């Protein structure tokens, strides 16, 4: 199974939703909190091509984007394939 990294914030409803979907798919993920961590948020923003919102998600070496993009992958049937590779 691919490594999954999710930058998130504790009270973000989109982060919670994305983590629920990943858990439902049986995916282990590494969560990196940006709460009160300006350097961590800056690193996330740099890696995400300037996007400052959370969540920001990577599956393996592939940058997925945020919750909406993760849900789009799920609806298209591509998420399971990405997680399995």
From TrEMBL:
PROSITE patterns: GLUTAREDOXIN_1, GLUTAREDOXIN_2. GO terms for cellular component: cytoplasm. The keyword Metal-binding does not apply. Residues 4-64 form the Glutaredoxin domain. One of its GO terms (molecular function) is glutathione disulfide oxidoreductase activity. The keyword Transport applies. One of its GO terms (biological process) is cell redox homeostasis. Keywords: Cytoplasm, Disulfide bond, Electron transport, Redox-active center, Transport. Belongs to the glutaredoxin family. Has a glutathione-disulfide oxidoreductase activity in the presence of NADPH and glutathione reductase. Reduces low molecular weight disulfides and proteins. This is Glutaredoxin. The lineage of its organism: Bacteria, Pseudomonadati, Pseudomonadota, Gammaproteobacteria, Pseudomonadales. The gene is grxC.
